[in-house]
From TrEMBL:
A Pfam family the protein falls into: TetR_N
UniProt keyword annotations, A-Z: DNA-binding
PROSITE patterns: HTH_TETR_2
Keyword Membrane: no
Source organism, top-level taxon: Bacteria
UniProt keyword DNA-binding present: yes
GO function terms (MF aspect): DNA binding
Source species taxonomy: Bacteria, Bacillati, Actinomycetota, Coriobacteriia, Coriobacteriales
Name by which UniProt lists this protein: TetR family transcriptional regulator
Residue ranges constituting the HTH tetR-type domain according to the UniProt record: 12-72
Organism: [Collinsella] massiliensis
Annotated DNA-binding residue span(s): 35-54
InterPro entries, A to Z: Homeodomain-like_sf, HTH_TetR
Length: 222
């Protein structure tokens, strides 16, 4: 499975047409009921054009991820390294995601958020971060820099994911504060106070596991 990017106006127009067509069809049907033939007809493109860019319909999610990633990065890039607060930058991330709420509502309703975030995570992977850092600074970044960025973005993505699952109800500024509070709290992960949180988490997980095992037990015959 693959999503291939071609840098030309003609190819970009074909990708946009396919993406827009799929969004419209997802409002009517689950992805499992959509065929490539129907998608091509709705998009006004040929099957060879579709296969030039995608291997399967699911790969169009990669296009959506690329669009969200690019619009988000374009919004925050001018803010980075110029004295702006972390809260301001993270708030811009949430604001850009809000601009794609129609997309996220559809993905949530059709149980497609997980594969979408898989594509988004690849786009935000370590090689991408390295390229971004090198383009912003003419110095070789350290491994510690990569580790911090990867850890920070991983946590932020997890909060964004749960926020979208909940219908994106909380405003961007509130979510930005949530990310910062979580980051500050995790800073004390190995302090004694962390063990209170750890104990609560393990208690909840243990209860859920016990309930799941109980539900899995066959019912006794009367």
């Amino acid at each position: 499975m693959a999503y291939r990017v071609y840098q030309s106006k003609r190819n970009e127009a074909a990708q946009v047409a396919i993406g827009d067509a799929l969004l419209g069809m997802l409002e009517e049907h689950p992805m499992s009921e959509i065929t490539i033939k129907e998608l091509c007809e709705r998009a006004g493109v040929s099957r060879p054009t579709f296969y030039r860019h995608f291997d399967a319909i699911e790969d169009v999610l990669g296009l959506f991820a690329q669009q969200v990633f690019q619009s988000t990065y374009r919004a925050i890039a001018p803010l980075m390294g110029k004295g702006n607060s972390g809260v301001s930058i993270v708030e811009h991330v949430f604001e850009k995601f809000l601009e794609h709420q129609r997309l996220f509502d559809l993905l949530r309703e059709r149980d497609l958020l997980s594969p979408f975030f898989g594509y988004l995570w690849v786009l935000n992977s370590l090689p991408t971060q390295e390229q971004v850092i090198r383009s912003e600074r003419s110095i070789a970044p350290t491994q510690d820099t990569f580790d911090v960025i990867t850890y920070s973005w991983g946590g932020t993505f997890s909060i964004i994911f749960t926020w979208i699952l909940d219908g994106m109800k909380r405003p961007a500024h509130e979510m930005a504060q949530a990310v910062i509070r979580a980051a500050l709290h995790v800073g004390g992960t190995f302090d004694a106070s962390y063990h209170d949180v750890s104990n609560i988490m393990w208690s909840v997980m243990g209860k859920v596991s016990a309930e799941a095992q109980q539900d899995a037990q066959p019912a006794e015959r009367c």
